[in-house]
Amino acid sequence: MPEIKPEQAISLENVTYQYPKSTSRLSFPQWQVAQGERLFLYGPSGSG
């Protein structure tokens, strides 16, 4: 199977997520993933 190559970038602005009753949150005031870049998010066990 041929590799699928992205044709566009992904841009995020003012994205925030926080679980109810949690003090931790995920926040992206301004962030971009360019064509061909890879993304990896990680956190403590059970965080998502």
Strand content: 25-35%
Q: Which geometry do the CA atoms define? A: flat
Q: What structural class is derived from the secondary structure elements? A: mainly beta
In total, how many beta strands? Answer: 2
**Element-level helix/strand string:** EE
Q: In percent, how helical is the residue content?
A: under 10%
User: Largest beta sheet, briefly?
Assistant: 2 strands, antiparallel
Describe the strand arrangement of the main beta sheet, using strand numbers. Answer: 1-2
- Report the span from N to C terminus: 31 Å
Number of helices: 0
Low-confidence stretches: none
Report mean pLDDT, rounded to a whole number. Answer: 81
Radius of gyration, Cα only, in angstroms? 14 Å
Give a verbal description of the structure:
The protein is mostly beta strands and 48 residues long. It has strands at residues 10-17, 26-33. The chain has a two-stranded antiparallel ribbon with strand order 1-2. Strand 1 (10-17) and strand 2 form a beta hairpin.
Topology:
Layout: E1 10-17, E2 26-33
Question: What are the main properties of this structure?
Answer:
48 residues, mainly beta, two-stranded antiparallel ribbon
Brief description of this entry?
By secondary structure, the protein is mostly beta strands.
